[in-house]
Amino acid sequence: MRLLQAIEERPRNANQFAEDLDLNYTTIRHHLDVLMDNGMVQKSGGDYGAVYLTTDQVDHHWKTVETIIEQVE
């Protein structure tokens, strides 16, 4: 959920998310892949340095995402 919130706040590349969230790069990449596989995140640009963004579907339903995040926290 932290990663999804961070993407919504400001799209970045995987390395930047790892630094900003103080998590291992491999962990970030795994979670980005899961989010991409589930249609929640898309990447823009080449493989290395690609910037990750939320999909239109997630943007459209962001209030629901926020509700879920509140329940998890």
TrEMBL record:
Pfam families: HTH_5 (PF01022). This is Bacterial regulatory protein, arsR family. Transmembrane segments: none annotated. Residues 1-73 form the HTH arsR-type domain. It comes from Halalkalicoccus paucihalophilus. It comes from the Archaea. InterPro entries: ArsR-like_HTH, HTH_ArsR_DNA-bd_dom, WH-like_DNA-bd_sf, WH_DNA-bd_sf. GO terms for molecular function: DNA-binding transcription factor activity.
